[in-house]
Design a protein that fits this description.
The protein is α+β, with helices and mostly antiparallel strands and 155 residues long. It has one domain: Roll (2,3-Dihydroxybiphenyl 1,2-Dioxygenase, domain 1). It is built from 3 helices and 9 strands; from the N terminus they run E-H-E-E-E-E-H-E-H-E-E-E. Strands 1, 2, 3, 4, 5, 6, 7, 8 and 9 form a 9-stranded mixed beta sheet that branches. The longest helix is centred in the middle third of the chain and has 13 residues. The radius of gyration is 15 Å and the shape is globular.
Amino acid sequence: MQKLHHVGILVNDIEAALKTYSKMPGISPLYDIRDLPEFGVRSVVLATEDTLSYRVELLSPMKEDAETRYQKEARAFLNSKGEGLFYFNIFTDQFDEDVKAAEDQGFHIIVETYKTLFPGYSVRMGFYQPHETHGAWFNLVDIYSVPKSRGGLAP
């Protein structure tokens, strides 16, 4: 099973973007803006009132220069394309099989584990490269490594 969990929109000023999106009826942040130093970005997730059918993550590079691949990609995206749709997060219950199937089709998947995204959990992600997907990141996320409180199946 695969399901689109949320999309990421890259912005220059996360506070200004949050203010804009928060004016939309029925849209509200699930939590305050938070720093994700492992990625080198600041983040906030917005959702509809039911929190299941519409999720958008607003992201902006952190001010300090981090040496994360993700932050470098975010800065390069903003410099070349400006603000906009940056990635799709797809939750899967067959992570290893899906990564292998993608690689068998010729995609180069970068697999990484993040330990600080959700404290106490090691979140496994596989990244399709934007030059292979016509400009957008597609991120496979192991649904069993994400806490239930964040839409996953980990206890």
